[in-house]
């Protein structure tokens, strides 16, 4: 997948022509200061838009991104495109809440603007990262064609198109190893994006993308993840042995697509809902701060999809709950000073919201087959799961990895951070590494940054966890 040096001149010539054809549709600007952060930024941040075409208009859709250069060696370190979940959650979540170089100073006060501080465990210490707002309408991305529909496949096509156009604007990163990453709902589009990049390279699309790896955190994959919540909840002591036995007997392992005539199964599910109603599904050790969200009503499959983006227990700080990062990030992103500093185009976005959950077509029903194809190609991957996540239990991820049916080359064992167990890991012959992150939730870097930084560092460095 490396680009042959003999093709460098032709590629650069092609790129120079392509750059002239779409410069007006794309723009980027360096950001040296951020409101809420004291002093100049000690890392390189760029924000900008890349124009994509939904219609015949080449800049019909404007995709917003945040780009952080590696703090180590930008010319040689990998380049990663990061897509947050939802679908429809801004990747500023990855930048500020999960693995970027800044984070909020978590304090409960009425300051007009939340304070930002450095994150010591930033993944940008060894990787260039583009945090992209997709699908359109997410974060600061916008479209002139508001009637265009959002869907899984459109995320795939747009991410692929975005990346090649971004590389045309940044030819100095074409030879860098490329990684595709995402978490939560992005477990659906990310493997398809990787497949589409490979297909595009085989067709000779320019610029060639030096794809090497992909990684996923707490990923939705088959939409059967909900069925594993019952066994996980039983293992954690949330439901009794008797209810667990009754659920298995009456529902026969399927707690999502339940026949409305199966009154005994529906009765048990109601009892299950009542038992976990006070649990924070994203991180079972934290207080439940949600405002009446019901993940188990109506169509359970639809509730599952909606729950991934709503995260309503994070909307506002409440009694006995931590200061909400979503509350702070919403307050920060809606400040006029912040928008001006980030070079947001005026009047393109009204109120900024971290996630939206409307007008989306789920047209990839499972990403499992993409993992099958990528495994056959030997594309290395890292799949990690916080082991205190009830939304996408690590047992559900283990199940579909097991179904890939590859032999184990490094069997189940603990991986250590500073002499302590950071989680457990196993590696397969398809070059897939699975890791649990001990004491972590959905999504893992938010809760255990030190462990996740160690995990990512070793994986990027081709070292065993």
From TrEMBL:
Pfam families the record matches: Peptidase_S10
InterPro entries assigned: AB_hydrolase_fold, Peptidase_S10
GO molecular function ontology, one term from the record: serine-type carboxypeptidase activity
UniProt keyword annotation of Transmembrane present: no
Compartment(s): Secreted
A Gene Ontology cellular-component term: extracellular region
GO BP: proteolysis; secondary metabolic process
Keyword list, A-Z: Carboxypeptidase, Disulfide bond, Glycoprotein, Hydrolase, Protease, Signal
Signal peptide: 1-25
Family: Belongs to the peptidase S10 family.
Record PANTHER family: PEPTIDASE S10, SERINE CARBOXYPEPTIDASE, ALPHA_BETA HYDROLASE-RELATED, SERINE PROTEASE FAMILY S10 SERINE CARBOXYPEPTIDASE
Protein name: Uncharacterized protein
């Amino acid at each position: 997948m490396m680009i042959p040096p003999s093709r460098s001149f032709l590629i650069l010539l092609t790129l120079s022509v392509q750059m002239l054809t779409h410069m007006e549709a794309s723009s980027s600007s360096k950001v040296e200061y951020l409101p809420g952060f004291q002093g100049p930024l000690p890392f390189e941040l760029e924000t900008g838009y890349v124009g994509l075409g939904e219609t015949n208009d080449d800049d019909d859709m404007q995709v917003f991104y945040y780009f952080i250069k590696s703090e180590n060696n930008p010319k040689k370190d990998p380049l990663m495109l990061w897509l947050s979940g939802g679908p429809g959650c801004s990747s500023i979540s990855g930048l500020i809440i999960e693995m970027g170089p800044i984070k909020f100073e978590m304090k409960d006060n009425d300051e007009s603007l939340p304070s930002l501080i450095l994150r010591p465990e930033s993944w940008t210490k060894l990787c260039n990262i583009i945090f992209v707002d997709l699908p359109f309408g997410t974060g600061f991305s916008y479209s002139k064609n508001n009637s265009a529909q959002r869907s899984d496949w459109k995320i795939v096509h747009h991410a692929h198109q975005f990346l090649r156009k971004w590389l045309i604007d940044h030819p100095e990163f074409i030879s860098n190893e490329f990684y595709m990453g995402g978490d939560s709902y992005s477990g659906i589009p990310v493997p398809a994006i990787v497949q589409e990049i490979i297909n595009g390279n085989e067709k000779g699309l320019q610029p060639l993308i030096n794809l090497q790896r992909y990684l996923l955190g707490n990923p939705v994959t088959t939409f059967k993840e909900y069925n594993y919540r019952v066994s996980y909840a039983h293992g954690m002591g949330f439901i009794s042995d008797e209810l667990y036995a009754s659920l298995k007997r009456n529902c026969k392992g399927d707690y999502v697509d339940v026949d409305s005539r199966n009154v005994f199964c529906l009765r048990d599910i109601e009892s299950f809902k009542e038992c976990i109603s006070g649990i924070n599904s994203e991180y079972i050790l934290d207080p439940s701060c949600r405002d009446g969200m019901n993940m188990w009503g109506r169509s359970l499959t639809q509730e599952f999809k909606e729950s991934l983006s709503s995260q309503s227990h994070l909307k506002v700080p409440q009694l006995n709950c931590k200061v909400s990062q979503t509350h702070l990030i919403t307050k920060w992103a809606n400040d006029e000073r912040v928008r001006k500093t980030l070079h947001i185009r005026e009047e393109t976005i009204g109120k900024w919201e971290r996630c939206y959950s409307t007008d989306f077509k789920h047209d990839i029903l499972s990403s499992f087959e993409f993992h099958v194809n990528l495994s056959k190609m030997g594309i290395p991957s890292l799949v990690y799961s916080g082991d205190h996540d009830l939304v996408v239990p690590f047992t559900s991820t283990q199940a579909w990895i097991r179904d890939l049916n590859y032999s184990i080359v490094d069997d189940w064992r603990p991986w250590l951070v500073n002499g302590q167990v950071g989680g457990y890991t196993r590696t397969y012959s398809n070059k897939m590494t699975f890791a649990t992150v001990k004491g972590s939730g959905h999504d893992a870097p938010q809760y255990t940054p030190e462990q996740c930084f160690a995990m990512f560092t070793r994986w990027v460095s081709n070292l065993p966890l």
